[in-house]
Design brief:
Structural class: mainly beta
CATH topology of the largest domain: Immunoglobulin-like
Low-confidence stretches: 1-20
Largest sheet: 7 strands, antiparallel
Helix content: under 10%
């Protein structure tokens, strides 16, 4: 066969273009971590920085190939429904692209589990539009334990559900139904005869987390459960009277679930207002609650009342307003520094509090449990000590009794300064964040922990550092979600974080490596 001049010219042009195509070649193979079969249709993102991102999907052979305009470190992330990356940090894994060679990478994806079954009511009929969700216990520094859902499904007309993308391991399973939610979501009337109906059960047939059983899922497998019986009933009425009737306007009642489940049909805290004569009526699902009343105008509050809501309405409750939760406090400065204390921003229990120029403040809280925030400190200042009702606080969370409690906050203008640089990495320094966590004592929550990013000179500068011994965590972008879990950093990764000791007012400079976060 003769090659015509036109065909030869086309082939030559393609060859020259192929040889001169800019960028560094890479090839990503995505496979199932259990059976090693290719995973097609996976989303692949290779990120050098925000301005240079390559993305695409794997073909049927589980391969995605491309070119990056820059050499050095890249963040590789692969995602697909029903899977998660089996190796690498939370946000992905770092790979190096080098000139003169094609980078070939294999990413293993762990297949997630599935929980399936059926929901029926007390009459044996299937329940449609019920929400079935996993619940996993979480515990963050400075906060009460709570339950978080990361997978859910809605039952069909046969009451069947299939909760996909469930992480392997043990989970509680919550099933909830609300006729209001069904009518809003489906646009049809509920088949139940009562005006407003609802139901809540924790697998297999419990109304409290203490009585519930956990369901264990395995990677790549479906866990088939027996029928779950959900009792559908009218919402339970809780009624009574506040004495004396609140004089202020706004919510005067708080009904808080004691188990902090992440539900869609029932709020964690239900706020309501009483009538002018102090009478009130609330509706709730079965479960354990704490009911309190307060007067927004006077700050007076009732003692918390624990309610165990079952099948029958609760009436004739009397909530007597007494002295309320009052906090009187002062902010003082330890040392020779001075500042306009009235410019500080103080929050107690979620509400802003005015501080005068002498540091004196007063607040009436609607609840005896909350957090405190103090912002706007001058650079180099830190909170040296906080004590409430004579007890030293080690975190932002506090609890007070009815009556007056004294809050003392001591500031110091002699915070330490720490400058952090990083060990040399191939391809330059990737996006990095640094946090300091104390070696002993209470672990701060994510918002309270000291953290910084490198400036234009490549240094991460932390000021207002209290004296003490710390671990220095330097994480690249693939592990940034760990900054929201200081407790996990200290529990699992403290051995890889250099230790630092600083005195009050001291300046320290140190070089640290990037923390290597191994997959779980």
């Amino acid at each position: 066969m003769k090659i015509t001049p036109i065909l030869f010219a086309c082939l030559a042009t393609q060859l020259i273009c192929a040889q001169s195509e800019p960028g560094l070649a890479f090839r990503v193979h995505v496979v199932d971590s259990i059976n090693k079969s290719p995973v097609g249709g996976a989303s692949v993102v290779l990120d050098k920085d925000r301005a240079r991102r390559i993305s695409g999907r794997t073909d049927r052979a589980g391969v995605f190939a491309g070119r990056s305009p820059a050499a050095g470190g890249h963040l590789l992330n692969v995602a697909r429904n029903g899977y998660r990356m089996a190796r690498g940090a939370i946000m992905g894994t770092r790979i190096e692209l080098n000139a003169g060679t094609e980078t070939d990478v294999t990413v293993e994806m762990m297949p997630l589990g599935v929980v399936a079954g059926r929901v029926i009511d007390q009459y044996g009929d299937p329940v449609s539009h019920a929400i079935v969700r996993t619940e996993k216990r979480q515990s963050l520094p400075g906060q009460d334990p709570f339950y978080e859902s990361d997978a859910f499904a809605v039952t069909d007309d046969l009451g069947q559900y299939r909760v996909a993308d469930v992480e392997p391991g043990k989970h509680y399973l919550a099933v909830e139904y609300s006729s209001t939610h069904e009518e809003s979501a489906a646009g049809t009337s509920s088949r139940y005869r009562w005006p407003k109906t609802a139901g809540l059960v924790l697998y297999p047939d419990a109304t409290s987390i203490e009585q519930a059983q956990q369901v264990e899922t395995v990677a790549g497998e479906t866990k088939q459960l027996n029928d779950i019986h959900l009792k559908i009933q009218p919402a339970i009425t809780i009624s009574g009277k506040i004495k004396p009737a609140p004089a202020g306007t706004g919510p005067s009642l708080s009904l808080r679930r004691t188990t902090q489940l992440g539900l869609a049909t029932s709020a964690m805290v239900q706020a309501a207002s009483s009538k002018p004569d102090g009478t009130f009526k609330l509706e709730a699902l079965p479960g354990a609650y704490v009911l309190t009343a307060s007067d927004p105008k006077t700050g007076r509050a009732s003692k918390p009342l624990t309610l165990n809501v079952r099948d029958e309405s609760i009436s004739n409750i009397e909530l007597e307003l007494t002295t309320g939760f009052e906090i009187r406090g002062r902010i003082t400065v330890d040392g020779t520094g001075s500042a306009d204390l009235s410019k500080l921003r103080l929050h107690l229990g979620g509400s802003p509090v005015n501080v005068d120029s002498n540091g004196v403040f007063q607040a009436n809280l609607t609840d005896g449990i909350g957090d405190y925030w103090l912002q706007g400190l001058p650079e180099g200042w830190y909170v040296r000590d906080v004590s409430l009702a004579g007890r030293r606080l080690t975190g932002r969370r506090f609890a007070v009794e009815l009556g007056v409690s004294d809050l003392a906050i001591v500031l110091s203008p002699r915070g330490a300064r720490v400058e952090v640089t990083f060990e040399t990495t191939t391809g330059g320094l990737p996006p990095v964040m640094v946090t300091l966590l104390p070696d002993s004592g209470a672990i701060p929550d994510a918002e309270s922990a000291l953290h910084s990013e490198p400036n234009a000179t490549g240094k991460a500068v932390l000021t207002s550092v209290p004296p003490g011994v710390y671990h220095v965590f330097a994480l690249d972008a693939s592990s940034w979600p760990l900054f929201m879990r200081p407790d996990i950093l200290m529990e699992k990764h403290r051995a890889g974080a250099p230790q630092l000791r600083v005195a009050e007012g001291e300046r320290k400079t140190l070089v640290v490596p990037l923390l290597k976060v191994e997959p779980e």
